[in-house]
Amino acid sequence: MGSPIVTPTIRTPLLAGESGGAGRSPVRTPAPTTKDWWLYWDTLTRGINQAAADIADLEARLDATAGLIVFANATASLTLTTTFQTIVGTSITLPRAGKYLIQATFDLIGIGAGDTGANLAGQLLVNGVAQPAQGIFRAEFTAAARATVAQQWVYQAVTAGQTALLQAAKSSGTGTSIAGNPHTSISALWVSP
Predict the structure, then answer these.
(1) Exposure of 24 by Cβ count < 10 A (0-12 exposed, 13-18 middle, 19+ buried)?
(2) 69-192 belongs to which CATH class?
(3) Tens of pLDDT, residues 167-177
């Protein structure tokens, strides 16, 4: 913030009996003295300076809590099976307790005629528990197909330090479909306590 407000020097006090202007009553006697005005301005500027300090404190506390983002990309591709497996590199730690918006992008690549018609899916696990909703791509293709599928979750972390990670699987098939690297990613935005 800027420098504090300084009380200005009072140059002329109001005098008893001075006219308050056209159509106004004369100033009441006794008129405020220079000291009275100085005390008034001093009290006023102290209040303004305290309010400015309170605002600065509030801004600092908001900056310390707003907009925390955690992000990770896959570091290796995962060949899909019919059992969900962890996608390497997509594990993040939620650093605070509170509400998070967690978003995932799954780079699902259907490979091999044996996976035609299979559902390729990605899911979120937090502390080993699968969260509701998956990112799904139905692989209808002759030789290969690809989709970057997004999904998001709102998650309430009761404590700091919880682990969130992505997993992927396919519903069936004998092909070699994968969750690709590095286009599979996870991000968590801390929203509120």
Answers:
(1) exposed
(2) mainly beta
(3) 999 999 999 99
